[in-house]
Amino acid sequence: MCFHYHRTVRFQDTDAAGVVYFANVLGICHEVYEESLANSNINIKAFFTNPSMAFPIVHASVDFLRPMYCGDNLVISLSPQKIGLEKFEITYKITIDEVIVAKAITRHVCIDVSSRTKQELPDYMHNWLETNHRDAEITERRKSREEVM
Known about the structure:
- The strands form two sheets. A five-stranded antiparallel β-sheet has the order 1-4-5-6-3. Strands 2-7 form a two-stranded antiparallel sheet.
- It contains three helices and seven strands.
- The chain has one domain: Hotdog Thioesterase (Thiol Ester Dehydrase, Chain A, Roll), CATH 3.10.129.
- Strand 4 and strand 5 (87-96) form a beta hairpin.
- It is an alpha+beta fold.
C-alpha cells in the first residue's frame, strides 16, 4: 500500500489571509518524509541526530492548485524515486476530499557529514526507496484501472 499521511491544517500553518502559508507546505511534506522513514523501521533519532551520513534537500518546489484552510483534512501521498547513486527525489500529492490541492518535490543528496562529500545511498535508504516507490506504482496502476471502469 502506498504511504499516505493524514494531517489536519492548524491555525499556525496559515497566514494572515487564512490559507496555508506557502513555506509551511514544505514543512508538512517533511513531516510525511519523517513518518515514512519511521514506518520503514528507520530509527528517526539516529537518522537525524549526529549521523555519519545526511540527506540534505538540494531542491524543493511546490505547485499550489487550490487553497488550504485551517481545519482542512489533508491526505499527503509520498512517492520517492532514486535518480542517481547518491540522489533521490520525493514527489508529494496533497489532497482534500480526493481533490489534489498541491504538489511538491524535494530532491535529496546523500553526503558524508564530516567531509561534506557525496556518498552512495546506504542499503537502508535503497530499501526505503524501493518499498515506497513500488507501493506508489501499484497504487497508481489501481487508480488507472478504476478510472477506465
